[in-house]
Model the fold of this input.
Amino acid sequence: QVQPVESGGGSVQSGGSLRLSCAVSVTTKRYCLGWFRQAPGKEREGVATIDDIGTPRYAESVKGRFTVAHDDAKNTLSLQMNSLKIEDTAMYFCAAARRRCGLYVSTDYYFDYWGQGTQVAVSS
Done:
């Protein structure tokens, strides 16, 4: 089952940490898994991606603070978020594609499967 299912969202104070998980099974040799987010009134944006050869890519706004990882044996995609900021508040989505990731994290048209999302709220 490829349909991603996210977990781990919640509320945290600024400077705190959260770890998101996504249960997702990949069915192709080449694949891309990604985290996206959408804040109220804003467009969806790419946060981080990782592909079958393990190449991680990050949005500039989260570099050095977030870490994406894929445990193929456990069919789990994770996003460790440290030093959270108020502007990180959003609904976070996990997505899967049947091809390798593109160069830009912001590109999302090729993702085939999307989760329902998990809410992250960062307060001061």
Notes: The two ends are 39 Å apart (CA to CA). The CA atoms of residues 4 and 24 lie 5 Å apart. The chain has a mean pLDDT of 95.
